[in-house]
Amino acid sequence: MMIQTGIFLLFVFLPVSPASLPLVINTWHFENATAAAWSALQAGSSPLDAAQAGCTRCEQEQCDGSVGFGGSPDERGETTLDAMIMNGDTMEVGAVANLRRVKNAVGVARAVMDYTDHTFLVGESASVFAEDMGFKSEDLTTNRSRDIFSQWLSQKCQPNYRKNVFPDPSMSCGPYTPKAKLHSGPRRKPGLIDLRSHDTIGMIVIGQNGQVAAATSTNGATNKVPGRVGDSPVAGAGAYADSSAGGAAATGSGDIMMRFLPSYLAVEMMRAGASPSAACKTAITRIKERYPDFFGALICANTTGGYGAACNKRPGFTEFPFMVSNAQTNGPVLQKVDCI
């Protein structure tokens, strides 16, 4: 933990997990994604390739319905995808957001890294870029996403993410126009939006020599305003990797978490000497001070293979599951951390 005394910061180091390399760690109980990344490493792939392989597996399997196609439809009933990948050796980042028609979002993010000098492509232009790069154009809608959308319409489009609009969102699906006078503070009571509508796979892979890579993939928040982009594809928010310090990845209420760059903060904490567990807790606490009811968690790993995690306690969310595979486990192992 971090204790502030005057202008000085004192780190009280908490016990860390046994350090072992190589390492794969990812959010939630997405075991097959961990196994795919670990298998790629064992076959000689780079940490960057392994991170991509792990997230691709989750996209293919539609992990929890919150990653990949056929989940989290927006207000128009469309599923769009966000993803990023980061090379901690070179600090290169590839990211896409509001991607349409292409299922392999993390693959497109990698293509942005490999085939452009850019970092981030969004929307229809990102989709056209993906198609130009040879990615298959497919419908991302499924019967499941249609059912989610139909049920939402039957509930008069509630809950949603609108505020300060007219007519009253509780009575109408729009169109929406701004109210003449804005009110301050959140309109929505905590818990109205399903906690599990924010899931993301965030993965950190560290090679035998300490090379760090990170990747994320998500289909965003259910019933989001079209065009919304959360924290997942934003470097420093959804994930961050630096081979001189470590890596971190976040999951949860992206609209809040991205304002604090928790992944970047955690990596910088580890650079300053904090354990992965302490770094994760500090980053979560920073958000909790401003938004005590936010839903979120963070995983962290340093370049020696030590790892940790932290989460914010909410009703119904008191512990956070994450997957680990390293030289000691030689395969995916589910671990959990108590929320703070």
From TrEMBL:
<keyword id="KW-0068">Autocatalytic cleavage</keyword>
<feature type="signal peptide">
    <location>
        <begin position="1"/>
        <end position="19"/>
    </location>
</feature>
<dbReference type="InterPro" id="IPR029055">
    <property type="entry name" value="Ntn_hydrolases_N"/>
</dbReference>
<keyword id="KW-0732">Signal</keyword>
<dbReference type="InterPro" id="IPR000246">
    <property type="entry name" value="Peptidase_T2"/>
</dbReference>
<feature type="binding site">
    <location>
        <begin position="251"/>
        <end position="254"/>
    </location>
    <ligand>
        <name>substrate</name>
    </ligand>
</feature>
<comment type="similarity">
    <text>Belongs to the Ntn-hydrolase family.</text>
</comment>
<dbReference type="GO" id="GO:0006508">
    <property type="term" value="P:proteolysis"/>
</dbReference>
<comment type="function">
    <text>Cleaves the GlcNAc-Asn bond which joins oligosaccharides to the peptide of asparagine-linked glycoproteins.</text>
</comment>
<dbReference type="GO" id="GO:0008233">
    <property type="term" value="F:peptidase activity"/>
</dbReference>
<dbReference type="Pfam" id="PF01112">
    <property type="entry name" value="Asparaginase_2"/>
</dbReference>
<dbReference type="GO" id="GO:0003948">
    <property type="term" value="F:N4-(beta-N-acetylglucosaminyl)-L-asparaginase activity"/>
</dbReference>
<feature type="site" description="Cleavage; by autolysis">
    <location>
        <begin position="199"/>
        <end position="200"/>
    </location>
</feature>
<feature type="active site" description="Nucleophile">
    <location>
        <position position="200"/>
    </location>
</feature>
<feature type="binding site">
    <location>
        <begin position="228"/>
        <end position="231"/>
    </location>
    <ligand>
        <name>substrate</name>
    </ligand>
</feature>
<protein>
    <recommendedName>
        <fullName>N(4)-(Beta-N-acetylglucosaminyl)-L-asparaginase</fullName>
        <ecNumber>3.5.1.26</ecNumber>
    </recommendedName>
</protein>
<keyword id="KW-0378">Hydrolase</keyword>
<dbReference type="GO" id="GO:0005764">
    <property type="term" value="C:lysosome"/>
</dbReference>
<keyword id="KW-0645">Protease</keyword>
